[in-house]
Structures are given as structure tokens and as C-alpha cells.
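Sat 14:20. Reprocessing the chain from the morning session after the first attempt stalled halfway. Input below, unchanged.
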Amino acid sequence: MILQNLHTHTRYGDGKNTPEEMVLGAIRAGCTALGFSEHSPLPPTLDPDGWTMVEPDVERYRSEVLALRDKYAGVLSLYLGLEQDIDSSVTEGPWDYRIGSVHGLHANGCYFSVDNNAAVFQETIRQHFGGDPLALAEAYYRKLSRVAEATGCEIVGHFDLLTKFNEGGSFFDESSPRYQKAALDALDALSGKGLIFEINTGAISRGYRTTPYPAPFLLRELCRRGEAICITSDSHSADTILYAFAQATELARSCGFTESMVLTEKGFIPQPL
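Finished this time. C-alpha cells:
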């Protein structure tokens, strides 16, 4: 099983634990490596709830992770990353890696999160997309198609995040041709660029879904195209570092993958599943 997780959050953003508590959780879980990927700062108008880093904390975050890397050398490999939101100005590195992501959309002069809660999601569809959830999906995937260019990421984060509250088709039918075309158009735009697409179990650990992101039809298409994957837990607490990795591994295998990318001191390399 893959014993590395590159998608984690701490108290610098919307996580529950300090960086060192995350390190200790990773050691308890049997990790061989842990990557920190705190949310890049968003302007206060786009982040009224304060779930991203604030600018003054970026250097403190960097310094703390690098100090922990030295402290735990020989015990756990640590990597300094960033989850770079498409709506955040690019935060200067150096970073060991970036995860590019989309969390919100602009419509009618407003900004709204697609992963806040189900009630907000429903109201957003009603107010800004004429009650048509697939219009929201199309807008989301158009924006996602630009994530690599906008963020300079190596990893594409939670490709179909907008399905967070859609378990069982609560808002829209994920098998509909219109929905799948929008998703596959974004995949078209991001394919062939040497990117890594994460299989993300975060919504499972937080009780929103019973399956990882992205959906099997997307994973099968990624495999068909020869794209790379990695497995992450999008962990926001020290007890979920490797959450549902066995489930994610089985999903990857069922969609045709035989290996997952892991980060080493020499860069990303494939590891058998």
C-alpha cells in the first residue's frame, strides 16, 4: 500500500492540528513520507471564514515545516508543498510541489464556494444558475481546465470537488451526457501536460461521501490516456493521514492503474500499487 500522503492541512489553514502533530500522526500511521500542502492565501473578500493561510503566515509555515524536516530526518521524509487555489495570487516558492485546485466560482458579481455546505450549494444553483445544477458544473469545469496554467501545479487536486454533496445524485445525475462532457472537456485541457491527478479520500473521512474523488468514469479515462495518479487523504487532522488508502488503491486498480506516483528527493517516481 502507498504509505505517503502529500495533501494535508494544519492550523495555518483549516486543519485541526499543528504541523508537528501531523508529523506524529503520520509516524503512528506508518507513513514513510508526509507532504504539507497548506491553502494559499485568498483575499479576505473570497475567504470570509478564514480557511486559507494569511500572507504573514506563509514564511512562518515554510520555516516550521523545514525545521520539522531537520528534526525528524531519518524518521520520516517531509516535503514542503502548497495547495495553490486558482483564485489566489501565485505564492512564491521554492516549494517541493504544488496542488492546483478550484474551490469557488464567480457569477453575477459574487464569489461562492462549491464545497461549503449543501444548503449553500443549493442556494447558489438557485440564485446564480437559474436552478440548473449542470450550468454550475459547466462553469466549474471551465475554470478547472485552466488550473495548471494558472497555478503551476504538479498535482491536480480533487478534480470533481463539486460532487462533494452529490452522493446518490442529490443535485444532478453524474452519468448524464451533459455533465460528463463538461468533465471530460476539462480533462482534455489538462491531459498530456505531465500532471498528476490525485485520488482524494478527504470527503470520506469528513463524512460527505463514501467514495473518493474523482469518479470512476474519470479515472478510467485518465488511465486510458496514460495519465499519472497519486493517492492522498486531504487530511485535516492527525488521525486521518492514510484514511481509506486501501479503498482508494482498490478503486485505482479497478480502473486499470498499476502504479501511483510518490515524491522522493529526486522528484516524483512511480510505485506499484
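The mean pLDDT is 97.
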